[in-house]
Design brief:
heterodimer, A: mainly alpha, Formate dehydrogenase/DMSO reductase fold, 2 domains, B: alpha/beta, N-terminal domain of TfIIb, Dimethylsulfoxide Reductase, domain 2, 6-stranded mixed beta barrel, globular
Chain lengths: 538, 739
């Protein structure tokens, strides 16, 4: 046996050594060594246009649905041939299903970026990190991107995808450098059935297809929003009633914590300035006592909110370019809006601060008049900045973020923030009045009833995006929803108790702040992302 | 400084920079077109894919000899420059963090396994198995082989286990996918001989697909259908409205397990239409008249009552086949995995024979195989059949094999092994006490999984040899042997169309992992029978033995000179003797039976048939739904030990098990889309997600087989001839889970 063991040792060593020798190159003759050009070319020659786009034309994807059978090779080819990260691929395959006249229909749908004639990613980008090339390709500039991900929210097809490791989004560029050389994009090269081709299309034709709220395919958003250029064709017309396999998915969306903080706190802070302005109108004496401490509260809230927003950016170093998008991007406007508001807030605070008195400015300048003006300007700029916040979300065309729901939530926070700050500061400084509790009660009730409008469709008969958002809150995020309601009730109750114990009012106001953060979390998580049809959800 | 400012951060539009440059593409040379700059190869080489039986050629991009990326091989005659997602991602699972890197020994069941050196592992292996054999007889140790390793390895395994170690019983996981086709062909044609070449997909004017979701399970074969220039009628027979059924021109959604009646009814209708080739039948077949008598009672009413297909529909199908000039019939697991699967497969073979649709371009009764080397296993696994398509019961065959291997003839058993299910039952009976499992994952994939797992627990010693040490089966093993994977070793795969293709070593195996071939060499020596296998020095040397074994057989491959020869030609189909390979060079295609000579002694094919049998479990009051199982997506492979290691593949399939329920059935069970639902059978109950879809019929539900819990539900019944499990017929019930 002993001799066997030594033999084994030598055999094991020999086998392990052999295992690590790679000799395919030496042992097998090399094909393609002198191959000129891409070997796949004969396969895709017919899938590319003969000429390049001229004025009024652009490149587009054309998908022959009759040949798309769901193998998903296009997805992996995009990943491999473009050297993308772990799970990154710029193409995806979903499925739509339905029955018409007893006939069961099922169709797999491959899609990538639609290289829209009016790309929402491009118009939404605050730093102009998108370009619409002359050939129609919507190109993302990776080094220009600040990773704000607003393009992902703006795109109704969920195309730009955030890459955490790079801190930017990336997206399909139609392999336009391959096209330049007469090579096919990765997906076109890889489809076994030749279902994906590149065509030159007239922009007018794209517009024509987008008329009458048409969508490219069942389950996709209406095309008149961004004028997508992809053409899905089929000899067997697909009923519009077909649904994506993931149409009923109740998975929550991304939480966007920094944005939750940013939106909530800036709105509460603007609310504080609103309370100040109203107070100055109805009770100048009280205003004189309370305004400065309230402004300090506003500065603290606003500062935390604005600093939090920076954490949302994947590549904040390029954020100084945010003004570039002012012409088309509400996000750009929001940043500039709050960028102006905060200095104004500080300035106004200085004007009404004891410092102004200490330095004897009162004698030099008409401080009282200036304060009135700056108070109104501050409020106006604040409310306008909140409006840009509202529009950032309304402009994404998502059902749950429509004007009535977003506007009422955001301005509701302004109102609630004003009422709560006034009541708590008044209680603490011994200027409590019962009407303050009434105002808080009113603001809280109003806000809650407006929020309920976004939950109520959960109980609708028919399926809709509104119902889906309602169900995500009622069903998937039930505990978050009840926490939110509980916090608001508790906060209002706390403030009401300010009449007996001032500390209760402060505590109540703090609870209201937390409740608002919870509300905003629901705002982000319950929205249904507009996207192309997906697969059976995990 | 100024330049730095301009070139870096202070440009208004930064068109270039480090992030942009990550995605720069450049001409890849070697016929590749543009490729990512970071992955530019310095050489390329072709290797056959290691997932399914399509056998696609993959063009592996190499840098300093090691694989860095791959693309489908443009000029490989199988896939013509295409691959499915699994093929594209074939390299990724090799770099998974959880590869087995060292032999592992588990001193105590249920505890974690410890890394041990190879000499100790080989020692444990032989000492434990030899001790069991000494106490309980040679038959008390068995092995389960696979369709996933190269032919040289499976032949080595079969020879080593049976002739070297005296193990009598061994079977393969191919029992789960191909056993039916093997038996059906053997009985009908006289040899296990799928007659087709993929070119037939392109030559047919009528393509009949039975129990095959080709678009998802074999996308590259569907590619060949799409390339068919004859505007073919594509007929799908399948209970579900699959992707393939949607793409077809005619779909016949027969009820589960009504196949036999359906095809007999179809045969009767074809006879009535006079759509038979009488001269072919007379000259080249036996038993047709008995068959015609047999099917006479399968009238349209009976067909409709059982299958749900109306007379008009049946007539339309029969007429389509009658009108076809080149009709090809193809089947996969929907047929093979049934309680009367062999006769069902033969009912399809009969259709091809009676209409003369065989041995001509675009015709054939064609079984599409499952695993990458199921065909290699059918000829060389040395389990059911003796090496090289021989017969254990045949003395001449034993003598021939013994001579070629240089062993005593007495070492060759005179009868085939037990089938997989019989091995499991004999473990339960205490007769088999040691099991060696190679590259398969029965604790996930075997039917009625709980009973399989109980069997594994009863064993005195379980050895699992696999590229991962954490498969469901490896988790139960006493000893785990780390294997090199596809791409880390050499050898031959044989694909569905009988094409031999080369697998090359383009990746280093992690840690101490060894190729299965070398593990067998090591174990042979440790066992004390190393001398007997002295000729098995390398896969290439073993290939020479395989060639010798095949001489004179229908699967003769003596005309293949070497791996290099195969590589030059782009694979070669068997049979291939003399200079046949080079003669085929232009087309590189080979179709069987063009000479109308079958492999029975009288050279005739045989009509085989039987009365249908009721399945041993059917829907009833307690379990009113029939559970169908099958492939989920093209991005998933079997028990997912590999496909779950690729992040991009994981994106392409649902991560959690789901059950497809018809919306009207869902209403009855008060289920909504996305609800958690408990699916229960007489064996077990599992909680999965309900997915409402009309693509399943009422009264049926579908689950994808790739999720480990699904086979806890399945009812173990087997085709009596092929012993293949019937995975697609279990009675289940649903109830909504309280979230």
């Amino acid at each position: 046996m002993a001799s066997l063991v030594t033999q084994e040792y030598s055999l094991i060593d020999e086998l392990l050594k052999e295992q690590n020798e790679l000799s395919a190159v030496e042992r097998f003759s090399q094909h393609y060594t002198d191959y000129q050009g891409p070997a796949q070319q004969p396969h895709y020659r017919d899938l590319l246009p003969i000429k390049k786009p001229s004025t009024g034309e652009q490149y587009s994807f054309e998908v022959d649905l009759d040949s798309c059978t769901g193998c998903k090779a296009c997805v992996t080819a995009c990943h491999s041939l473009n050297g993308l990260h772990d799970s990154e691929a710029w193409r995806d395959v979903g499925v739509i299903r339905g029955a018409e006249d007893g006939q069961v229909r099922q169709q797999t749908v491959t899609s990538a970026c639609h290289h829209c004639a009016d790309p929402a990613c491009l118009s939404g980008c605050p730093v102009e990190a998108y370009e619409k090339l002359d050939n129609g390709v919507v190109k993302h500039l990776d080094d220009q991107c600040i990773g704000c991900q607003y393009c992902s929210l703006k795109c109704p097809y969920d195309v730009p995808k955030y890459d955490k490791s790079l801190g930017i989004v990336r997206k399909c560029d139609m392999c336009h450098e391959r096209l330049e050389e007469g090579e096919a994009p990765a997906c076109v090269q890889a489809c076994p059935n030749g279902a994906i081709s590149i065509r030159v299309v007239k922009v007018d034709k794209i517009k024509e297809r987008a008329q009458a709220s048409q969508s490219m395919i069942a389950g996709a958003y209406r095309s008149d929003y961004t004028l997508p250029s992809t053409n899905f064709k089929s000899k067997r017309p697909l009923p519009a009633t077909m649904e994506a396999a993931d149409a009923h998915c109740l998975e929550p969306s991304h939480q966007h914590t920094p944005l939750v903080w940013m939106l909530t706190l800036t709105q509460l802070a603007v609310g504080v300035t609103l309370a100040n302005t109203v107070l100055a109108l109805i009770s100048p004496e009280l205003s004189q006592l309370l305004e400065f401490p309230m402004l300090i509260v506003a500065i603290i809230l606003g500062k935390i909110g604005l600093v939090a927003s920076v954490f949302h950016l994947g590549s904040p170093l390029g954020a100084w370019r945010v003004f570039l998008g002012l012409k088309t991007s509400w996000l750009s406007r929001e940043v500039v809006g709050f960028g102006a508001w905060m200095p104004l807030l500080i300035l106004h605070t200085l004007i009404v601060s004891p410092l102004a008195e200490m330095f004897g400015l009162e004698g030099v300048l008409p401080l009282a008049q200036i304060a009135v003006a700056s108070r109104w300007i501050l409020l106006g700029v604040g409310l306008a900045a909140v409006f840009t916040s509202v529009m950032v979300y309304v402009d994404t065309h998502r059902e749950f973020w429509r004007m009535s729901l977003t506007g009422s939530k955001f301005y509701g926070s302004v109102l609630l923030g004003g009422a709560a700050s006034l009541a708590s500061v008044a209680a603490m400084s011994g200027h409590w009045s019962d009407s303050m509790a009434l105002i808080v009660l009113f603001a809280g009730t109003l806000k809650l009833s407006l929020e309920w409008k976004g939950v109520r469709p959960a109980f609708d008969q028919d399926w809709s995006l509104a119902k889906q958002s309602g169900l995500i809150q009622w069903h998937t995020l039930g505990s978050v929803l009840s926490t939110r309601i509980g916090l608001l009730v508790l906060g209002v109750l706390g403030i009401t108790l300010g009449m007996v114990a001032p500390l209760c009012a402060v505590l109540g106001a703090l609870i209201i702040v937390v409740g608002e953060l919870w509300e905003r979390r629901l705002f982000f998580q319950s929205v249904v992302t507009l996207k192309m049809p997906g697969s059976i959800p995990s | 400084m100024k330049q730095l400012l301009i070139s870096t951060n202070f440009q208004l539009r930064q068109l270039d920079g480090p992030k942009t440059r990550r995605l720069v593409r450049r001409p890849g040379q070697f016929g590749l077109g543009q490729i990512p700059s970071e992955k530019a190869p310095d050489a390329t080489t072709t290797s056959v894919c290691g997932f399914c039986s399509t056998g696609c050629g993959l063009n592996v991009h190499l840098k300093e000899g090691e694989a860095i990326n791959l693309t489908p091989a443009t000029h490989y005659p199988v896939n013509l420059g295409m691959a499915c997602p699994k093929g594209w991602e074939a390299l990724t699972p090799l770099d998974a963090d959880d590869r087995a890197t060292s032999p592992m020994y588990r001193p105590q069941r249920g505890q974690s396994a410890e890394a041990i050196p190879w000499n100790e592992a080989a020692g444990h292996f032989s000492e434990r198995f030899q001790a069991i054999q000494k106490e309980h007889g040679d038959d008390s140790v068995a092995f389960i082989s696979t369709g996933q390793i190269v032919t040289e390895e499976m032949a080595f395994l079969g020879a080593l286990a049976k002739f070297g170690m005296g193990i009598k019983h061994g079977d393969g996981n191919t029992r789960q996918c191909m056993a039916t086709a093997v038996v059906a062909y053997k009985q009908s044609f006289g040899f296990d001989s799928p007659p087709y070449t993929y070119q037939d997909f392109e030559e047919s004017d009528v393509i009949v697909l039975v129990g095959s979701n080709l678009c998802i399970a074999h996308p590259i074969m569907w590619q060949r259908v799409e390339r068919n220039p004859h505007n073919p009628e594509i007929i799908v027979v399948d209970p579900r409205r699959t992707e393939t059924a949607v793409a077809a021109t005619q779909h016949y959604p027969i009820r589960p397990k009504s196949d036999l009646i359906f095809f007999y009814g179809l045969a009767k209708r074809l006879i009535e239409l006079g759509a038979i080739d009488q001269s072919f039948i007379d000259q080249h077949t036996n038993e047709f008249d008995d068959f015609a008598n047999h099917v006479a009672s399968y009238d349209a009413a009976r067909v409709e009552a059982q299958s749900g297909i109306t007379e008009a529909e049946l007539n339309k199908l029969a007429q389509t086949i009658a009108d076809g000039q080149r009709v090809s019939f193809w089947w996969t697991m929907g047929v093979n995995q049934g309680h009367e699967a062999t006769r069902t497969a033969q009912s399809i073979i009969n259709l091809a024979l009676m209409t003369g649709n065989i041995g001509r371009p675009g015709t054939g009764a064609n079984s599409i195989t499952g695993q990458c080397n199921a065909m290699g296993s059918r000829l060389f696994s040395n389990t059911t059949g003796l090496l090289g398509g021989h017969d254990f019961a045949n003395q001449e065959h034993r003598e021939k094999v013994a001579n070629i291997l240089g062993i005593e003839e007495e070492r060759i058993p005179q009868e085939p092994s037990m089938a997989y299910d019989q091995i499991i039952e004999n473990i339960h009976a205490g007769k088999i006490r040691g099991l060696w499992v190679i590259a398969t994952n029965g604790a996930h994939s075997w039917i009625h999984q709980d009973r399989y797992r109980e069997a594994m627990e009863k064993l005195d010693f379980l050895v699992v040899q696999d590229m991962y040490g954490n498969t469901e089966t490896a988790e139960m093993a006493d000893l785990i042997l780390p294997a090199a994977a596809w791409g880390e070793k050499e050898g031959i795969f044989i694909n569905s169309e009988r094409r031999l293709g080369v697998v090359k070593k383009v990746h280093k195996a992690p840690g101490q992992a060894l190729s299965d071939f070398n593990i067998f060499r090591l174990l042979a020596q440790a066992w004390g029978c190393g001398e007997m296998f002295a000729k098995w020095q390398s896969p290439a040397a073993a290939f020479e033995i395989l060639k010798e074994l095949s001489a004179g057989q229908p699967c003769d491959i003596t005309g293949i000179e070497s791996y290099q020869h195969l590589d030059e030609l782009g694979g070669v189909q068997w049979p291939c003797t003399g200079t046949q390979a080079s003669a085929r060079k232009e087309e590189n295609q080979c179709r069987l039976f063009e000479d109308r000579q079958f492999y029975h002694p009288d050279k005739r094919a045989k009509f085989l048939f039987a009365d249908p049998l009721a399945p041993s479990e059917w829907a009833d009051e307690d379990y009113p739904l029939i559970l169908l199982t099958g492939r989920g997506t093209s991005a998933q492979w079997h028990t997912q030990s590999r496909t779950s290691k690729s992040e991009v593949l994981k994106k392409l399939y649902p991560q959690k098990a789901y059950v497809e329920v018809h919306p009207e059935d869902a209403e009855h069970w008060q289920l909504k889309d996305g609800d958690k639902v408990i699916v229960s059978s007489r064996r077990a109950e599992i909680t999965v997600v309900a997915h409402l879809t009309p693509i399943v019929q009422r009264g049926q539900v579908f689950m994808s087989m790739h999720y480990p819990e699904v086979n806890r539900l399945t009812h173990a019944s087997f085709d009596p001839y092929s012993r293949q499990p019937s995975y697609k017929c279990s009675a289940v019930s649903l109830r909504k889970a309280l979230s």
